[in-house]
Structure of Class A beta-lactamase-related serine hydrolase:
Amino acid sequence: MTDLPSELLPATRRALLHRLAVAQAEGRTPSMVAGVLRDGRPVWSGARSMVDGHAPTPDVQYRIGSLTKTFVAVLVMRLRDEGLLDLADPLSRHLPGTPADDATVAQLLAHSSGLTAETPGPWWERTEGSLRPGLDDVLEADRPLKHPAGRVHHYSNPGYALLGALVAKLRGEPWGEVLRREVLAPLGMDRTTLLPEHPHAGGFAVHPWADVMLPEPLTDTGLMAPAGQLWSTIADLARWAAFLTAGDDKVLSADTVAEMRRPAVAPDDAEWTSGYGLGLQLRRDEGRLLYGHTGSMPGFTAGLWISETDGLAAYALSNATSGASAASLAAELIALTADLEPRLPEPWRPLAEVDAELLELTGPWYWGAAPAALRLRPGRVLELAPLTGRGRGRGSRFRPEADGTWTGVENYYAGETLRVVRHPDGTVSHLDVGSFVYTREPYGPAGAVPGGVDPEGWRTF
């Protein structure tokens, strides 16, 4: 959007800093850092600290907890796109012998495998990974399943330990090294690491009833690392947010990233305020649909949210176990920016070129007696939309294919084929959309409409 300024307005920047300062002060957090991305570009960052005259720079690492799961999910989707696995594959096809043999890859990604939420034994987040030397040690041996597979969303940290092991098995090297080479390096995220590298924040617990602090252990969680081990910075999270917004063909296509943010199981709540895709959390916040992920580990909280509609992303990091929520702050920063500087619509522009045959297809069409309109969009995209809210009309955009057909990209017709059916003389007879016939008049020629048309035609009774 070339007519937008590269930076936010001073009043917006002041409001964002104020919101960050309130979160750090009222949440009693040693430090907080945050940033905002607009249309793929960082436009604001801020920091607050308990130390007078000092604030962390965008290069300071914080532990990002379960935001790690988004990185693991991207690695798995790369394997899928390369044809090395199918999301419907049971885990046993590639990593046999675990208590989760029957869980599918998709169920593990979406936390719908039914697996237990946590590991047996001591709290894995505060203990060394050497206490869990094998995959059998990250799941309960007697009852690893808490729900029927595929039925409900039940968050499972051990499930992502299994996905990390799956990546390592299929790539033949540790998942962290695969992540560095295949994802972090191509995206320029050289400050995102498995273990902390200077400069990094220390993690603290803040006493609930007194203003005193306790250092938290900075553990290497071993096999559980894919569930929450990574450290990162707001500078790197800006790059990650840009990738999760639009994809990057060096890592994952935009279509695959969009697939990850679609709900994978039925929402838990009737109001649909939260959900989960393939490695990405979904959230409705004051009517705004967000996707991203939250994270927490002892001493740290993290959050990254993206609003596709607003063209905004926000990310926040803190170094306290509880108190101020970085995830809530990130969502609030999106809402604040969108309210103060709402997104401008793209200016209307005519098509750069037009195909006369496609222009001929535009206008009204009828599925039986239900009217619809076909419009020509940039890139030879066709858009079919019902003209009224009544009846059984369905709308979708259709992308062009090399064979002269179009494929639906959304709603009921997603994946379905639109064909232009012509008479022997080359003139258009009708549109075939997944076997539904659209004609130029209500219940058009008998030869086109399945089942024929009453020969007496339209009449009064």
